[in-house]
Amino acid sequence: MGSTSTDVVPTVAQKTRLIRRSREGCGNCRLRKVKCNEAKPQCQPCLSYGVVCNYDKDVMDLKLPKELQHLWLAQELSPRVPLKDLISTEAALETHSVPLELDASSLGLLSQLYHQMKLTSVFPVADIFQLAQEYPFLMHAALALSAAHDRYLSRAMRSSQGRTMNEMAHGFQCTTLLNRTLCHEISPAHRDPIWATASFLSILSFLALDECDPSKAWPFKPSESDDMNWLRLGDTKWKLFQLTQPTRPDSIFYSMSDTYQKMRAYKSTGTIRSISPELQVLCRLDECAQPETSPYFEAAEIITRLSKWRDFEIPFTEAMAFIIYTSPSFKSLLLMKDAAALVLLALWYSKASRTIWWVDLRAATELEAICMYLRQYHADDLTIMSCLRYCSGKERALELLC
């Protein structure tokens, strides 16, 4: 009995030492519930995680480094300068110059996003947010998305719906850190946080819209190489899907296997009868039309399928088919601002935006911009004008099928 007691006591004492937290550690370590080594001015956990130590309680929350303070001041003094140009300078966004502050405001936004996703998303939200405490690139992605979500919720009270400096800075930091990780061999433990980050980044790319005036937004604005980037990200994300294998049994995303299968299982019927007569006329499709011969075919077929659903009841997988399965040639037509392709995109916005908040935020500007553009440059095309009546106003929710 004596020897047993002796064996047990050190074990208990050792466990106690492992979980004992520092009483003098920085605030970030206490928030993250990790042991602080109390090094000053920067403790090792904060250096490794990329956060700014806050031993001093008087340190202002969300304090920006000097580089970003100059940018913020420039933004306030020169609101006409596009935010995109302001934060693209190399001096402003050095990888290590963007702090990650886990202050009360940031935690509030994260909590807001967490509860929204728990209610409306099939993602394993609790597991993702748990991983974010361990992987900086995922935490930056979550912070950027939480800022975008707050922008969506507060848009009625704001004159501008463009990205905030905080949202862009976290997005940039996330991309930089993720690219560094992908330059090395991916360990099994990194697969889930990488896939979660890729999923968040795909949403953030959709929300990368800084011009809120429809008359100045795409398609009115001059063409740029990154136009429609959000629509082309599907191919890159699919490569990461194959790399990370989120449907494997030990993945936190395993519960979404059926969802992923449905998203990849779309198959065109290959028959003109699957497309509404009105869209057949718009896209100049005859009885011989096939997905292989017409760039409009799959997009028109997907829009016709979506029109059968009531607003707010469209399954996520059905809405995403437009992004995943429209052909490269159709996406090229969009870049060229082809009228029929623009109509199909507008019709997709009008349906998908009723289901997905981040589609709704982009559609608030771009759907109106497309409709204005088509009315300005194609007002004499009666077919186009007829289709546009389904994209706005009281008839927005009407079915396109005859």
What order do the helices and strands come in, and which of them pair?
Blueprint: H1 2-19, H2 27-32, H3 44-49, H4 66-77, H5 83-86, H6 104-120, H7 125-132, H8 136-153, H9 165-182, H10 191-206, H11 229-244, H12 257-264, H13 277-282, H14 297-306, H15 316-325, H16 328-335, H17 339-352, H18 357-377, H19 382-388
Question: Can you characterise this structure?
Answer:
This protein has helices at residues 2-19, 27-32, 44-49, 66-77, 83-86, 104-120, 125-132, 136-153, 165-182, 191-206, 229-244, 257-264, 277-282, 297-306, 316-325, 328-335, 339-352, 357-377, 382-388. The protein is 55% helix and 0% strand. The chain starts with a helix and ends in a 14-residue tail after the last helix. The longest helix is centred in the C-terminal third of the chain and has 21 residues, at 357-377. The relative contact order is 0.07. The radius of gyration is 25 Å and the shape is globular. Helix 6 (104-120) packs across helix 8 (136-153), helix 10 (191-206) runs antiparallel to helix 11 (229-244) and helix 14 (297-306) packs parallel to helix 17 (339-352). It is mainly alpha-helical and 402 residues long.
Say how many strands there are. 0
What is the rounded Rg? 25 Å
Instruction: Quote the beta fraction.
Output: under 5%
- Largest sheet properties: none
The structure class reads: mainly alpha
InterPro entries: Sterol_Uptake_Regulator (IPR053157), Zn2-C6_fun-type_DNA-bd_sf (IPR036864), Zn2Cys6_DnaBD (IPR001138)
Pfam family, one: Zn_clus
Keywords: Nucleus
Domain Zn(2)-C6 fungal-type: 25-55
